[in-house]
Design goal:
Elements lengths: L2 H33 E8 L7 E9 L5 E8 L9 E11 L10 E2 L4 E4 L9 E10 L3 E7 L2 E9 L4 E5 L15 E3 L8 E4 L6 E5 L3 E5 L9 E3 L3 E3 L6 E6 L6 E6 L3 E6 L10 E4 L5 E6 L6 E6 L3 E6 L8 E4 L5 E6 L6 E6 L4 E5 L9 H4 L6 E5 L6 E6 L7 E5 L3 E7 L1 H4 L7 H4 L1
Parallel strand pairs: 11-15
Antiparallel strand pairs: 1-6, 1-31, 2-3, 3-4, 4-7, 5-6, 8-9, 9-10, 10-11, 12-13, 13-14, 14-16, 17-18, 18-19, 19-20, 21-22, 22-23, 23-24, 25-26, 26-27, 27-28, 29-30, 30-31
GO cellular component, one term: nucleus
Organism: Protomyces lactucae-debilis
InterPro entries: Histone-bd_RBBP4-like_N, WD40/YVTN_repeat-like_dom_sf, WD40_repeat_CS, WD40_repeat_dom_sf, WD40_rpt, WD_repeat_RBAP46/RBAP48/MSI1
Length: 426
């Protein structure tokens, strides 16, 4: 075997692939003015594997923008200290013509928005909290967004009260609560939206924690958890049902979607289960409006839609990605809108009300009728993304190459007229 020849061929393929990615990015950049009302690209110091909009927004009188916050992490590969990070983001109240070509050397941002009094597009890290190892997933508690739970590479689940930490790191990781039980790296984390203090985490198994049991949340340790062992391989994601307080779902490398009811006595037997895909299942999301609909995303490059009342038969398969589907999230207010992100560097928006519509031959080349928007601004795989709750068509996405992008598709694409931030109208 000619090792040098194989290495040269591999390097040649990598160069060609990078050239293709760069060409695709140039095409996206050229067309972005027609595709977006807002688009901002910001370079972080290190990649983040996690991304979530906070639920709050600040309106500044006399300004054309409002200030939002993002929850981020770091993935330094142990080359530097890791952090839980909180970023402030200025977003236009009335999106106008984007300028993707504009680049700010000082902030590492490109893109932005125009219009009178809109101010400068800006993403700024405003708080760093020391963390042990990479932050695989970080989520705030819905009932108290100052409480942030993280799951990382070392198994323990850490809970921070961000108000008890300075904005600049001290060099010492000091969580308010340490949840001890997992023995492997974990990726699944979900706070109950209906019952304060209940937290689900997933690694080699699923564990349910009640942080209300902690008397003094200042360096406390919690070992007690309820363990669910219904999968035969690692668990990649776990999610509480948004409308049913005792239901949750989990997905695994064993290709299964399992539904549990916490009232059941048998924690190792799910209430419902189905083989969801022919490859590992990486993520799931319950519809926030229709309590019976759940979506799953897989390494087979597809998404599947399920009815919880008839879990043995999938409703529909969404095909459009060419890489492992890493993250899926429903639109917070539109029942039929679903978004997905994958290792193919694409974030896709789906409108399930379009399933089955007739297409011309030209339209078929762009994908199925339910695929209505493709965000192609990333040049590396996308780890996580989040819908903004105050500007419901604005999303934030985080990629492997340190880039966080914030974008809103053009109003003529999503079928809505541009409008002010909802809170501005109240």
């Amino acid at each position: 075997m000619d090792v040098d020849s194989d290495q040269a061929n591999e390097e040649g393929r990598a160069i060609l692939e990078q050239k293709r990615v760069n060409e695709e990015y140039k095409v996206w950049k050229k067309n972005s003015i027609y595709l977006y009302d807002t688009v901002i690209s910001h370079a972080l110091e290190w990649p983040t594997l996690t991304c979530q909009w906070f639920p709050d927004v600040e309106h500044i009188p006399g300004k054309g923008y409002s200030t939002h916050r993002l929850l981020l992490g770091t993935h330094t590969s142990d080359l530097d200290q890791n952090y839980v990070q909180i970023a402030s983001v200025n977003l236009p109240n009335m999106p106008d013509k984007v300028d993707v070509g504009r680049y700010n050397d000082e902030t590492g941002e490109s893109g932005g928005y125009g219009g009178p009094g809109s101010g400068e597009a800006r993403i700024q890290i405003i708080q760093k909290i020391d963390h042990e190892g990479e932050v695989n997933k970080a989520r705030y508690m819905p009932q108290n967004p100052n409480m942030i739970a993280t799951l990382g590479s070392r198994g323990d689940v850490l809970v921070f009260d961000r108000t008890m930490h300075s904005n600049t790191p001290t060099g010492v990781c000091n969580p308010q609560i340490r949840l001890v039980g997992h023995t492997a790296e974990g990726w699944g984390l979900s706070w109950s939206p209906l019952r304060q203090g209940l937290l689900l985490t997933a690694a080699e198994d699923v564990r349910l924690w009640d942080i209300n049991a902690v008397e003094s949340a200042n360096g406390a340790r919690l070992d007690q958890s309820i363990v669910f062992q219904s999968h035969t391989s690692g668990v990649n994601d776990v999610q509480w049902h948004p409308l049913q307080p005792t239901w949750f779902g989990s997905v695994s490398d064993d290709t299964c979607l399992n539904i549990h009811d916490t009232r059941s006595d048998d924690r190792n037997k799910p209430t419902h289960t189905t083989r969801a895909h022919d490859a590992p299942v990486n993520c799931l999301a319950f519809n926030p409006i229709n309590q019976y609909v759940v979506a799953t995303g897989s390494s087979d490059s597809t998404l599947a839609l399920w009815d919880l009342r008839h879990l043995k038969t999938r409703i529909h398969t969404l095909e459009g990605h060419t890489g492992d589907v890493q993250s899926i999230n429903w639109h917070p207010k539109e029942e039929t809108i679903l978004a997905s992100a994958a290792t193919d560097r694409r974030l896709l928006l789906w409108d399930l009300s379009k399933i089955g519509e007739e297409q011309t031959e030209d339209d078929k080349e762009d994908g199925p009728p339910e695929l209505f928007f493709l965000h192609g601004g990333h040049t590396d795989l996308i780890h996580d993304f989040s819908w903004n709750l105050h500007q419901p068509w604005t999303l934030a996405s985080a990629a492997q190459d340190n880039i966080v992008q914030i974008f809103q598709p053009a109003h003529n694409i999503i079928g809505e007229e541009p409008s002010a931030d909802e809170a501005e109208l109240e």
